[in-house]
């Protein structure tokens, strides 16, 4: 506590509360001896022990003692700050003490529970730990948490399904949204597609209502043919320049930003005869052919899965390709879009359709029976496996070469079964022995090693569809640098926590959804978008953000503007001001201390974890107590 | 045991290692908590200090604590890609690299500094790490910073060297240089950069030690060379540079040999 009038420092008045925690500490440490010892330490004005400091009477004891003994610092020596610090900090605040004037000393998890067989040394260690806490507490300073106003508008980058869904969610909550799309129309990657999984509607028909809603929503300002050019600021206060292809750059102010820039399919250069032989196309190209109704008559189709993924050109599994292949295989088998060269007036597989109509229970029963028989079990004598069940779709042979089929989830598993009912063959290959696409006498052929028969086989095909993974946008790194958010090893945007914060970035105020954070199907992308919108709406709805008090601080007289701190900060929480000197954006700083440990001039200190505090604490352990 | 003076312990052979652990709040500290909750026992020698991230641990914190008499220091952080602050522990690893280089220069066994990644779920690992580390320090014996002035001076020089602009900037940028390339987008060869940091560490340490020794009493190039076991031509080059930077001054030559004395800055003696 400083005596402002004299400008002199009064010596601190520290209160030490040592907990028995029932017998958890008291059973292995002589708490009375530690308390007596604590009372002898410099600047300790009061020391006492409690059976349970976290119980009502323990907390009241702290509050009363702060007043009675005029304490300006409180130490609780008990369990772990990770669970109990907030409780004791609130207690201090209730007694009018700044919560940063509180120090925790852990003598349970780090002492009594790990030295249960040596009471004497455990007691000595507890004394040392208390002495360390007191040494630290002497240098504590009160800290203020500041509120920062938020611009109640959002920016959504990307006008695909995720971007539109996120923008619409925020706009429907009443927040103005700037939606930036690099193409001249909304829709994103889905516009390239023809059919979608689990719906008979075309891709266009599916997303049209969404586009209509976005167009009708007055809160959404669309920026087509545009890209984000510059981003300045931090959560609640971003100044963004949106650069148009032929329009003047526009400046907008937003409080939060959602990244929904999508992904692109890998072009399988040099793989499986792509671009080398005719009729070897990617799954996306096949969709485009379907859209154009430009498919050659198909008799024999081979899909090759995991083309370029899972350790070839990229390391990951693209998740959606198995289901896309199953969907496309069923469409071919059902002769959608006249893929088999039969006129649409006379669908060749009325029989095939009829099979999927029966009541669910019956269908399931039949399906099981059929699968059992197809595996060659229980086949009745004289019965020909080929003739049972659904007609093999006008004789078209569909083979899916796969490493393993990932038809995850209930609906995809059903589709997988449906494909098998339609006699789509799934043949496994191992990564060491990839199928080969060759031309033999002017005909396309797929050679493969049959893992069950253990022999080389080949089959003539008239089209090979390569399932290539979704990969990150080629310009993802540009946006990542503008927003100071990370890309993972695979080039996709990396969320703050893989499980608990799936649509947040570590940087506050910026969020991510859709395929720019990894392959996802439309439903998943839409869910993520709704999640990101609701996360992004929190600061907008509050109208303010609470800045952390545990931040770094720059000593402007020492800073030479070398910029090393700006480079190492993972949150973009440091920037250079007009004079070229670093300054901390308190709202963005998380208090990790990287900049402080890095600063070549020693100009950066961490509040509440200063060198002085940490060194006092550590060196106190080396003293003889 | 700590009631007696340290020297007495050593003479009586009852010396007990003093070990400090700096643990990050999110992984290692939580791992140490779990270790306690699970009642995994370990020796009583270690005293733990909590920081928010292992990246907070500057070389100065570690070297100053060694200078103050620690026999061993453990730094605990999250496993790579688990860091609560994304890339903090990658920087920690580089900084520990510098600390070890400087400890080596100072003649302190680098095994006295240990970096371990302990997650919040690795309670048992924490007890194993502490037990092993304590045994290791027990074998190495006391660090002697409190009893041997030369050891103290060398650790102090290592500390000063770690605070120089050159080393802090090099090591501060090391992780980004290796992971993202240099300012021109070129890849940086880890061995080459490592070599640069090695050389810089040695030079900065030697200069810091010259200042440390010449602070106590004026010394000649030859004397410094002998005490430091560094060739005199190198000492002379260091002195030329230190004189340019007004850190050392020539004083009353004894006979024909000039001696040098460190210039005190501010309130420094």
Total number of β-strand segments of chain A?
Answer: 30
Could you give a short account of the major beta sheet of chain B? 4 strands, parallel
Question: Which chain pair shows the most residues in contact?
Answer: A-B, 53 and 58 residues
**Biggest sheet of chain A, strands in spatial order?**
10-9-8-14-25
Hey, roughly how much beta strand do the residues of chain A contain?
Answer: 15-25%
Order of helices and strands of chain B, N to C?
A: HEHEHEHEHHHHEHHEE
Output the CATH class name of the largest domain in chain A: Alpha Beta
State the low-pLDDT regions of chain A, or none. Answer: 1-5, 343-364, 375-393
Q: CATH superfamily membership of the largest domain in chain A, which one?
A: FAD/NAD(P)-binding domain
CATH topology of the largest domain in chain A: FAD/NAD(P)-binding domain
Question: What helical percentage do the residues of chain B reach?
Answer: 40-55%
Shape of chain B: globular
Q: How many whole angstroms does the radius of gyration of chain B measure? A: 21 Å
Protein model, in words:
- The complex is a heterodimer of chains A (625) and B (269).
- Chain A has 625 residues and is α/β, with parallel strands linked by helices.
- Chain A folds into four domains: 2-143, 3-Layer(aba) Sandwich (Rossmann fold), CATH 3.40.50; 149-262 and 473-545, FAD/NAD(P)-binding domain (3-Layer(bba) Sandwich); 267-377 and 384-469, FAD/NAD(P)-binding domain; 548-607, Alpha-Beta Plaits, CATH 3.30.70.
- In chain A, the strands form ten sheets. Chain A has a five-stranded parallel sheet, with helices on one face. A five-stranded parallel sheet of chain A has the order 16-23-17-18-19. A four-stranded parallel sheet of chain A has the order 4-3-5-6, with helices on both faces.
- In chain A, α2 packs across α3 (81-94) and α6 runs parallel beside α7.
- The longest helix of chain A is centred in the last third of the chain and has 21 residues, at 522-542.
- Residues 1-5, 343-364 and 375-393 of chain A have low confidence and may be disordered.
- In chain B, the strands form two sheets. Chain B has a four-stranded parallel sheet with strand order 2-1-3-4, sandwiched between helices. Chain B has a three-stranded antiparallel sheet with strand order 5-7-6.
- Among the domains of chain B are: 6-140, Rossmann fold (3-Layer(aba) Sandwich); 217-269, Winged helix-like DNA-binding domain superfamily/Winged helix DNA-binding domain (Arc Repressor Mutant, subunit A, Orthogonal Bundle), CATH 1.10.10.10.
- In chain B, β1 (19-24), α2 and β2 form a beta-alpha-beta unit.
- Chain B is 52% helix and 14% strand.
- Residues 1-12 of chain B have low confidence and may be disordered.
- Chain B contains ten helices and seven strands.
- With 269 residues, chain B is of the alpha/beta class.
- Chain B has helices spanning 6-12, 28-37, 59-67, 88-105, 123-140, 149-162, 165-180, 190-216, 221-228, 232-244; strands at residues 19-24, 46-51, 72-77, 113-117, 219-220, 248-254, 257-262.
- The two termini of chain B are 35 Å apart.
């Amino acid at each position: 506590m400083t005596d402002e009038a004299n400008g002199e420092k009064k010596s601190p008045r520290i209160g030490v509360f040592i907990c028995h925690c029932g017998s958890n500490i008291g059973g292995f440490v002589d708490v009375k001896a530690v308390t007596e010892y604590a009372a002898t330490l410099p600047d300790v004005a009061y020391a006492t022990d409690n059976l349970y400091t976290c119980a009502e009477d323990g907390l009241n004891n702290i509050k009363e003692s702060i007043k009675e003994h005029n304490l300006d610092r409180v130490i609780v020596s008990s369990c772990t700050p990770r669970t109990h610090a907030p409780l004791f900090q609130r207690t201090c605040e209730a007694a009018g003490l700044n919560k940063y004037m509180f120090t925790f000393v852990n003598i349970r998890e780090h002492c009594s529970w790990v030295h249960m067989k040596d009471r004497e040394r455990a007691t000595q260690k507890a004394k040392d730990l208390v002495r360390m806490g007191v040494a630290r507490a002497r240098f504590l300073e009160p800290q203020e948490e500041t509120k920062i106003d938020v611009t109640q508008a959002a920016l959504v980058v990307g006008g695909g399904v995720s971007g539109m869904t996120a923008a619409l969610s925020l706009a429907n909550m009443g927040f103005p949204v700037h939606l930036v799309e690099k193409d001249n129309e909304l829709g994103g990657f889905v516009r390239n597609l023809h059919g979608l999984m689990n719906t008979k509607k075309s891709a266009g028909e599916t997303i049209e209502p969404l586009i209509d809603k976005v167009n009708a929503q007055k809160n959404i300002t669309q920026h087509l043919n545009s890209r984000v050019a510059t981003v300045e600021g931090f959560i609640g206060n971003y100044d963004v320049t949106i650069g148009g292809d032929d329009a003047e750059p526009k400046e907008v102010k937003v409080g939060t930003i959602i990244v929904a820039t999508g992904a692109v399919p890998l072009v399988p250069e040099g793989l499986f005869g792509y671009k080398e032989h005719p009729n070897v196309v990617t799954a996306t190209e096949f969709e485009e052919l379907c859209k154009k109704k430009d498919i050659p008559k198909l008799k024999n189709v081979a899909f090759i899965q995991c083309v370029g993924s899972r350790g070839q050109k990229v390391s990951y599994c693209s998740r959606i390709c198995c289901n896309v292949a199953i969907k496309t295989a069923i469409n071919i088998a059902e002769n959608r879009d006249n893929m088999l060269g039969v006129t649409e007036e006379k669908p060749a597989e009325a029989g095939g359709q009829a099979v999927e109509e029966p009541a669910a229970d019956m269908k399931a029963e039949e399906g099981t029976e059929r699968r059992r028989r197809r595996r060659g079990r229980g086949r009745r004598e004289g019965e020909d496996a080929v003739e049972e069940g659904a007609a093999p779709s006008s004789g078209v042979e569909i083979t899916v070469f796969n490493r393993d089929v990932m038809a995850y989830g209930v609906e995809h598993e059903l589709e997988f079964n449906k494909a098998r009912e339609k006699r789509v063959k799934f043949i496994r290959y191992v990564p060491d022995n990839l199928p080969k696409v060759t031309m033999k006498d002017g005909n396309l052929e797929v050679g493969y090693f049959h893992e069950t028969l253990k022999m080389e086989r080949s089959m003539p095909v008239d089209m090979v569809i390569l399932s290539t993974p979704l990969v990150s946008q080629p310009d993802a790194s540009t946006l990542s640098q503008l927003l100071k958010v990370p890309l993972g090893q695979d080039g996709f945007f990396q969320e703050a926590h893989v499980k608990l914060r799936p649509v947040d970035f570590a940087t506050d105020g910026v969020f991510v959804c859709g395929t720019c954070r990894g392959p996802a199907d439309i439903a998943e992308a839409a869910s993520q978008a709704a999640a990101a919108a609701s996360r992004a709406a929190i600061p907008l709805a509050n109208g303010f953000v609470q800045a952390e008090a545990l931040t770094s601080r720059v000593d402007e007289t020492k800073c030479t503007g070398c910029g090393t701190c700006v480079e190492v900060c993972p949150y973009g929480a440091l920037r250079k001001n007009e004079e070229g000197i670093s300054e901390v954006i308190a709202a963005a700083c998380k208090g990790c201390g990287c900049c402080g440990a890095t600063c070549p001039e020693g100009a950066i200190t961490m509040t509440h974890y200063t060198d002085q505090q940490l060194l006092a604490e550590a060196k106190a352990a080396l003293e003889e107590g | 045991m700590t009631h007696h003076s340290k020297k007495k312990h050593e003479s009586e052979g009852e010396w007990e290692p003093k070990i400090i652990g700096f643990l990050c709040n999110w992984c290692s500290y939580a791992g140490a908590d779990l270790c306690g909750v699970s009642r995994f026992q370990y020796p009583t020698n270690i005293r733990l200090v909590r920081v928010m991230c292992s990246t907070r641990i500057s070389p100065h914190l570690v070297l100053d604590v060694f200078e103050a008499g620690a026999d061993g220091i453990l730094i605990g952080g999250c496993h790579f890609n688990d860091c609560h602050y994304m890339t903090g522990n990658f920087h920690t690893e580089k900084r520990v690299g510098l600390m070890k280089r400087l400890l080596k220069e100072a003649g302190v066994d680098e095994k006295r500094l240990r970096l371990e990644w302990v997650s919040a779920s690795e309670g048992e690992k924490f007890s194993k790490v502490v037990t092993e580390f304590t045994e290791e320090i027990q074998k190495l014996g006391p660090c002697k910073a409190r009893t041997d002035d030369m050891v103290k001076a060398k650790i102090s020089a290592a500390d000063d060297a770690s605070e120089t602009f050159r080393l802090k900037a090099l090591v501060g940028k090391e992780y980004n240089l290796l992971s993202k390339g240099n300012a021109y987008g070129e890849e940086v060869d880890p061995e080459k950069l490592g070599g640069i940091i090695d050389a810089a560490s040695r030079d900065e340490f030697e200069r810091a030690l010259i200042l440390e020794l010449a602070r106590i009493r004026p010394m000649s190039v030859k004397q410094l060379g002998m005490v430091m076991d560094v060739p005199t031509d190198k000492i002379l080059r260091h002195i030329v540079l230190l004189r340019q930077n007004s850190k050392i001054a020539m004083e009353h030559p004894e006979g024909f040999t000039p001696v040098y004395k460190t210039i005190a800055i501010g309130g420094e003696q």
